[in-house]
Amino acid sequence: MKSNPHDLDRTIVHHIDEKARALENALKCDVIAYFGQISPQYFRLFRNFIEEVADASKRQDKAISVVLRTPGGSAETAERMVGVLRHHYETVNFIVPDIAMSAGTILCMAGDSIYMDYSSALGPIDPQVMAPDGSGYVAALGYLDKVEEITAKAALSPADVVFLRSLDLAKLALYEQARDLSIDLLKKWLVQYKFKDWVKHRTTNRGSDVTPDEKAGRAEEIATALSDHKRWHSHGRMLNVDKLKDLRLEIDDYSKDAALSGAVRGYNDILTAYTDRMGLPFILHSHHSETL
Prior knowledge:
Elements: H1 5-27, E1 30-35, H2 43-56, E2 63-69, H3 75-88, E3 91-96, E4 99-100, H4 103-108, E5 113-116, E6 121-122, E7 128-130, E8 137-139, H5 140-151, H6 158-165, H7 169-194, H8 212-226, H9 229-232, H10 241-246, E9 252-253, H11 258-278, E10 283-285
Parallel strand pairs: 1-2, 2-3, 3-5, 4-6, 5-9
Antiparallel strand pairs: 1-10, 7-8
């Protein structure tokens, strides 16, 4: 007897929903998954989805955890997404079982907590912007670094001259603005959310009060480090838990928490497998929403 492929899909989706409920029970908050680029074209879908989940949830704590897997995207869209999340929830956490690069890293900095394990990675902050020829998205900092490298030369090659002549100065200014926005958002969100409970020093001057200037200074250090391409040498460099902790960014490492690790991977791995099997470039999931 042949099986109906639709029956198989319904069975898989049922299991994904059950794994989502298990992770919610482990974290005691709403859970959603966002897989894909952080793009303006997905914003309205995201807004409507969060409204639906918040309305359907019966939890009273107004907390949500976002399981995030993204190659990055638009810093402006990340800012709008944070506005939506914070409108509906008082506590917002991000869980990165695999990778959250570029604008995904920026988005994570708006979290009260960032959950990762030893195999997870964030990336240097570098918003993606439309290339001058309109051919697709490029990394803004990588593009600006190339311009800086060429203009610093004592003598330009013919190829350098052609490249510089092709530049649209207005778009170059937009790239610089995208870079500055990314850094400003990171600094603002770290102080407002990630550092909100950092009130006493735990190492240097142990027990003394943490001042607003000290929070701002720490945020500045982290933002500067994450946006320094000369330090990381690559837009796609993977920054694991240890590298992030070296930057003095506090990460909730669940590597040794068998129960939480099992709940995160149980949900993430089956959802990832289903997404890849279906060839979906973008997906939002919650057991409250019929999106699969």
